[in-house]
Input
Amino acid sequence: MKASPKHRSALTAALILAGCFAFLSPVGPTLADDGQSADTRANQGPHLDLGAADLPEGRTVTTLAPGVTLTRISRGAADSSLFWTAEVAIPSDSPDPDAPASALSSQATAERVAEKLKANGVDARIEHVQSPQLADAGGDLGYRVRAAHLATKADGDALVARIKAAGLASSVIYTGWDGDVGTSAKDRGPWKLEVITIDQEKYHGQLSATFGPDLEKRETTSELARDARAIAAVNAGYFVFDPAAGAEGDPAGVGVYGGQTLSEPIADRPALVIDGNKNSTSIKRLTWVGSVSSASGEATLDGIDRVPGLIRNCGGANDLPTPLALHDVTCTNANELVTFTPEFGPSTPAGPGLEVAVDSHNIVTSVAEPRGMAVPAGGHTVQATGTDTARLRALAPLGATLKIGTGLLGQDGKTLRTDKSTSVVNGGPLLVKDGQEHVTAKRDGMVHPDDGNSFYYGWVHKRNPRTFAGTDAQGKTLLVTADGRSTASLGLSLKEEADVASSLGMVQAINLDGGGSTTAVAGGTVLNTPSGGAERAVGDALLVLPTRKDEQDNPGK
Output
C-alpha cells in the first residue's frame, strides 16, 4: 500500500536508497572490487521458506545507520498457473432471513449453489478448502463456490453481472491469494518484502513508538516518521478505523508511549514491548488493572482514552457479546468508567453520563453532565456511563481527592516496569515462540464463532499484506513488511508469515496490523506498495530514531 515504484528492479531501488541514506551514516558505504556499493550487493544467505523450494530469490542490503540495515527481498516470479476467478457469496443455511452470506459452507449447500448457477448459464465449481494447522486452529474450513478462469480482473465484470442475475453476489479474486494446503507450497510467487534489522550492540539511536499529535486522530507512517526525523519506521498496532467503533485512531489494544499507558490491553493478547534504553524488544501477554479511589471508596476502571461503551476487538470482563478477544468486532458495555489523559485529544468524547476533571494534584475541579470536556494539563478526567454514573458521583464530589491508578501485568502477575524509554504496541496473533512456530489465532480472537469460518478464511487463511516484528537469537530486532493483494506480490497467510519469520532467523515474532496499513519507510521514502493504492493513515508506528530521547516532555510525539 505504499508508493515505491512497482517495476523498478530491486537492485536499482537499493542503489538509489543507498544514495538517499548516505547522510544518515557518518561513514559512507565502502566499494567492492567491481565498484558496486558493498552494502547493496545481492545477499546470498538462506532463502525464505515461501512457495516452491526452487524459486529465485534476490536480496539487497543497505546500511541505513550504524547497526541498522534494510534488506529488500524479491522472491519468485509471475506464475502462469494463477488466474482470476469469481468467488460466490453463499447464502446462509440459517433460518434467520438476515443472516449474512459467507464465503464458505457445507458441501451440500455449496453443491446447491453451484447447480443453481449452472442452471443460469454459469459454469460454477466447488472447491474444498483445507487450511494449514496452526497452534489452535486450522484444518477443514468448508467449501467455496467459484466460476471461470479469467485472464484479468476486468474480464470478470460480465460474469459478476450474470451471477447477480441468478440472485447471488460475487467478487473477482486472484487465485494467487489463496493459502490452501497442497497448493501454497507449490506457488511460484512473486513476493516482495522489506526487512529492517536493528543490532542493539551497534545501534546508538533509540527504538520507540509514536501515535502522533494525539490519540484520536490518524497519521500515515511516513508522516509519523518524518515528524520524528526517524531513520526508518513501520506501521504498528491495530486501531479504531470506523468512528462508529470508537475514537478514530485510538489503539485497539494496549498502547504505552514514553512510558505512559494510554490504552488498555485486549484480554491477554500479545504485545511488542520496547526497551528504548537497551534498544531491545520482547513479546509479552499483558493484562491490566485500573482503579479510581477517594475517601468515599474505590471503583474499577474499564478503560483508558477510549469512547465508553465501545470496545474494539472486545476482551473486557463485562463486554458483550463476549469477554474474550474477538478481532475486528466492536463489543459494547453500557456501564463503564473510563479515564482520559491530555494525550487523547482536544476534548473527550461527548455523550450521556457524568465526567469529572482531576488536576495534577488529584483534586476534583469539575463535575459535569453530560460528558465531553478538555482534559486539564497534567491531569485527567474520568467518564461514567449507565449505572456507573451514580458510583462516580459518590466517589468524586467537587473538591475531593481522587486517585487514578493503572498498571500492566505480565503472565506471572508481576507489574510491567516502565520508564520514559518504554513503548508497547498491540498485536496478535503470536507467530513464533522460543524458536518454534506457534500461531495462536483462536486464542487471540481470529476465529469467529458461528460465522462458518468466513472471517478466518479471509483474515488468517488467505494471503494478505502483513507487518510483523520480533527478535533473532542474537537479540536483534527485525521489523518486516510483506506486500499483498496484488499480482506483483501475493501477500502471506498467517502460516506463511510464521514460516518467513522463522526462515529470517526470528525466535520470537508477533503479527502487527496489516492489510491496507502495512507500510515500511526509510529515508523519508515509502518503500512498499500500498494495497489500497495510497498510504493509509494509521494509529501508531514503530520508529528507528537517529538519537536517543532521554527527555520526553510529550510522550508519544
In short: Residues 198 and 556 are 21 Å apart (CA to CA). Helices lie at 10-21, 107-119, 157-165, 221-227, 388-395, 454-461, 494-503. Residues 107-119 form the longest helix (13 residues). The mean pLDDT is 90.
